[in-house]
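#lab-general

N.A. 3:47 PM
ok so I finally got the sequence cleaned up, no stray characters, all 433 residues accounted for. can someone with queue access submit it? mine expired

B.Y. 3:52 PM
send it over

N.A. 3:53 PM
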Amino acid sequence: MKRNLVAAVGVAAMMASVAACGSDGGGEAAKNPKDRKETLTVWLMVDAQSTWPELVKDVNDRFNAKYPGVKVNVQYQQWADKTKKLDAALSGDKFPDVVELGNTETMTYILNGALGEIDPKKYENSDTWIGGLKDTCSYEGKQYCVPYYAGARVAIYNKDMFKAGAGAETLPSTEAELTAALDKVQEKYGKDKAFSPLYLPGRYWYAAMSYVAAYGGEIATYDEGRKEWKAALSTPEAQKGIKHFVDLVEKYNHGDKTKDEQDHANVMANEKAALLYGNGWEAGSITDPAGNGNAELKDKILTAGMPGPNGKALPSFIGGSDLATISKSKVQDLGEEWISMFTSAKSQEVLASKNILPNNTKQLEPLKAKPETAAIAAAVPDAWFTPIAPGWAAIEKKEVLELMLLDIIKGTPVEEATKKADEEIDKLINEQS
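B.Y. 4:20 PM
back already:
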């Protein structure tokens, strides 16, 4: 979709100045790779440090074999404060040359002029990049980042609880069968007033919007004629999805309905829930004692596709990460080459071996037949994504969707709450964040 580029402000104003980026000088003037003497600073999220450190080492070793004089300085970041640190770094002269961004974060930095343009042809498997990642790197027909890995949400359930309550340890494939099973699980474990057969937090907007997508609704739509976004939560389709979500929350969540999903894995680890809807990797955190998990549940926690309305699977939000170079870096060419190595088919194979979804559909396909990843891999092709709009970051920051859901949980009619949310979204969605 084509849109007029929003005038760069804030960080973009800083892009006009030529500043150092942690490199030692030299740049492309040194044509021979062995003559390059710069420093390449890479910001990766802590996931890479904890889960695939051998991949980082292997890529750095291969990169240094070609550029022995270049120092690769990998700095690991936390999701909670990464963007705040990045914004501060971009306002000065000590910033990374390569940065990992969540796929809901990229548009803000593209519009601010912070990211360097890349040529997809330089990257392996770019012709089969997963759409939900590629689209968040694209603007006005140009590409500004490279898909790194993908994620999707699935049903995570305790098979022993389903077997004891509903007579089968396999999750039902339709929602009608699932709710019937949840009713039986409730009968079995309902003496514990804190137990929820399905723990679905009321402010869990990713889940709520999945039900909106299931009914053909959207958060917002793009008007090609007017070249602007328009909120769509008060359409009949979106309202039907939100009502469906809230009905499930009201019937099956016996915990605090006003919470979001941040602690739902912990709820299951404490055996206060039989089923939740979450990221595939959360199944591991439920049983990991190093992270408040319950090791006794090992081999009891399984994943499956989440049944949705109308006899179909529930559409999942497509999450994941992208990698980008910083536009004012003096070593953008080195950054692009490092990213190319880090996202190569060889590197993606390492991620796939750890049940992390690769950035392309070609290498995703085998994971659909692997029991540990079948559900999450199958959820990716039909996944939905948030509006790729200039003001989306502001909408998330103001928690417009969470507050709308909270109002509904507290008794505000869906029609009234969605109308209010649409008005707020319309004020923000077309504005530069």
